[in-house]
Amino acid sequence: MELELPDDTESLKAMVRRLLVEIEQLKAKNAELEAKNAELRSRLDQDSGNSHKPPSTDGLTKKPALPKTKRSNSGGQKGHKGNTLRQVSEPDHIICHYPEVCSCCGKAFHYEQIEIMSKRQVFDLPPQRLIVTEHQLGQAICDCGHTETGTYPSHITQPAQYGAKVRALGVLLSVQYRLPQEQISQLFIDLYGYSLNTGTVIHALDTAYTQLQSTETHIKNQLLQEKVVHYDETGLRVAGKTHWLHTACSAQYTYLFVHPKRGQEALRSASSIIKDFQHYAVHDCWASYFAFTCFHVICNAHILRELTALIEQGSVWASLFHTFLLDCYQQNIAKESVEVRFSEIMIQANREEPFARKIPQARGRPKKTKGRSLLERLIHYKVSLLAFMFDSDIPFTNNQAERDIRCVKIKMKVSGGFRTTQGAHAYARIQSVISTLRKQNINVFDSLCILFSESTSDLLCLTAK
Asked: Which residues are within 8 A (CB) of 316 and not within 5 positions of it... i.e. 6 or more apart?
């Protein structure tokens, strides 16, 4: 079908102008569709290396978050102390394996003829049974006629009850090892022949939650004095609704709390400590954290993932900045050169990521590309991004917080969620204390036994002594 052109010049000019407008509109529409197509393709290619998806979604293609500087041989390394099982000098039982008769002449051996040539030791579990201790209350009548009655220990309250070690093990299995209540009960039946019912475990968890309040306060006070504290949050299901588990942690202390909200409402609540923290806070650049006056440090592992996603789309500046960050991490670049190199890459980035143009007749502000958004964030938070280069106490990533918060994700995979808000709060407090004890190389089971057998105001101080 041929297009009929007008004969007069003015009509031709009007047609050309109309077609030029349509061409511009089609170009803008085409650019918009290409951007949407690229975004959809990038979503299909997302993994833990170029997005915020967890490593568990990568299947068998997992890669380390940061490159390893040296590839060593498998197995124990030189200088590694190791935990090899070693023989003890005084075994509990000795079983002798003596020859009875001579295989040559058939003569029986006497005991005096036998000499021990070698020994082997087997380490095994003792017979599994609960030890029942009976507490008897005595009464005496004095010569003066007064009757005096003894008193039971404060933790002995029932005619028949489980002791501190059983309750400590129940709490440890539920919180640290994330076993459902039914499996804990079945395990006790298999090991000891007693059914540790759900009510007993829940009561032990509630008791631990109450008695660990002062220990939790101690942890929060210690974290406020730390130079560097890591912050993070993750979602979980509580009573059928989405809640958030927040963490504040360091190399020595872990604090967890549950809140219905993720942002500033949670961070300004009485449970949070960041509102009172005045030192270095490491986080993943979540906007709500920047409302507080502490010194902010950005997790560079998150930045590397975003840069990787841009590199896969052909970004040159992202590749340059990815290399720059790793050079800083591996100390392959002088501190004096950091500012200059950063500025050079940002100039290249501004060429590749221009400001978004407003589409004619489109409502609202023009949408920025992911590259432009990341670029502006890097420039705005440059000090927070490169703080690790100028202070050896500041880490490159926020891995400490991610490790301390990972436990609840495993808990969710096993149990699906918490039935009650009280159960979630109890889990957070007990896990905080258990994680802190682990970091300080304090035996967790012994500490929980102390918790259930003694009236203590601060478990950390008592176990440290």
From this structure: 348, 352
